[in-house]
Amino acid sequence: MTNWVEISEERLEANYRTLCETAGAEVSVLAVIKADAYGHGAELCAPVLARAGAEWLGVTNAVEGAEVRAALVRAGLALAQQPRILVMSGSLPDEAATIVEHALTPVVWTVEQMTSLADARMKQAEPLAVHVEVDTGMSRQGAAVGAELDAVLDWLAAQSALRLECVMTHFASAEIAGSHQTSAQQVQFEQAMRQVAASGLRPELMSAGNTSVVDNLAATGGGASSLAWLKQLAVKAGARAMVRTGLGLYGYCLPIEREAGFTGAMQPAACPHLEPVMTWKARVIGLREVAAGALVGYGGTFLAERPMRLALLPVGYADGLRRELSSNAAGSGWVMLGGKTAPIVGRVSMNLTVVDVTEIPGVAVGDEAIVLGEGVTAEDHARLARTISYEIVCGIKTLRQLV
């Protein structure tokens, strides 16, 4: 291989356990492996997380859920040993049969979704568990508090094909300690739970929050955190709290910021104890000496001001290496070679990138460069590309292997 990603099984397991410990024994942790495990490979990561004790995995859609089921079987895990799989992004009527066939658990928020699922499970002896999402102010997916939610709850209470296992919501500003938006969403969710109680339904789980909710708990000492609120609300409803952690599994999290006027204590967060799971590597496939005045790459955007030694790497934007890492007046991205920084020179092209190894003696064809990993992180790439680490790791498209 000349360009590949290594996924550390040890680090993935350790990150999962760290997040579970931070959340607390009374909280269930759903391991989110949607979007192909944030670019890390869902079929690789799912068995690792299952063996680490994960009771829940989260996927994007029914097709991804079926693929994960198959990967768990190939890994030698019988269905009874496998985690539950939550289809997090809703479903269309033609996905209902796949959900039932592969024992997936759907997130729902409309009567139409539930009707399709009820029709698909006609031959099943047990009711299909569903997680009802409530839109508490993100205006994305979920039943609105009030009449919309009542319609969903009334439908569930009047039939036996489906059972309400969980009520959930999603916070739009979980990365902000003391967020006014989060506070408003909490008020809405509390109202939703009063509606659930009035319906006579008794969910087993109450789910809200991502990695940042867990991280926010550590950052604020728990006193002002969304997780502390969730635990209290779950106890009051006779349910178990659950969080859905994604990015943290893979060693990254967004920084916790302060809302204006927030005076709570900001303690070290969980994130420093998480380690990146992915190491992206590429082998040097060429070396060349260029004289001062040479132009490098498309458009001749880089001018060598001195004699230089350049290394060619078989990786580019087709693989997910962002073009914004090309060299410019403000600097450039870099890779690591022999433990030293090798700056990118010229433009990142589709399948090739040139780096400066003038100051790194002994570089030879076949040497491994670290494109992402020790010495260069997804956060470094995100800063240069003016985006977030989520987009960086999700955008990597190359061969992956467990190590």
Walkthrough of the structure:
With about 400 residues, this protein is α/β, with parallel strands linked by helices. The protein has two domains: about 10-250, Alanine racemase (TIM Barrel, Alpha-Beta Barrel), CATH 3.20.20.10; about 280-400, Beta Barrel (Lyase, Ornithine Decarboxylase, Chain A, domain 1), CATH 2.40.37.10. About 30% of the residues lie in helices and about 25% in strands. Strands 14-17-20-19-18-21-13-1-22 form a nine-stranded mixed sheet. It has an eight-stranded parallel beta barrel with strand order 2-3-4-5-6-8-10-11, surrounded by eight helices. A two-stranded parallel sheet has the order 9-12. Helix 5 links the parallel strand 4 (about 85) and strand 5. Helix 3 crosses helix 4. The protein is elongated and about 80 Å long. About 50% of the residues are buried. Residues about 215-225 and about 265-270 have low confidence and may be disordered.
Layout: helices, strands, pairs:
Elements: E1 3-7, H1 9-23, E2 27-32, H2 34-38, H3 42-51, E3 56-59, H4 62-74, E4 84-87, H5 96-101, E5 105-108, H6 111-120, E6 128-135, E7 143-144, H7 147-157, E8 162-169, E9 176-177, H8 180-199, E10 205-208, H9 211-220, H10 226-237, E11 240-245, E12 257-258, E13 278-283, E14 286-290, E15 295-296, E16 302-303, E17 308-313, E18 334-337, E19 340-345, E20 353-356, E21 368-372, H11 378-385, H12 389-394, E22 399-402
Parallel strand pairs: 1-22, 2-3, 2-11, 3-4, 4-5, 5-6, 6-7, 6-8, 8-10, 9-12, 10-11
Antiparallel strand pairs: 1-13, 13-21, 14-17, 15-16, 17-20, 18-19, 18-21, 19-20
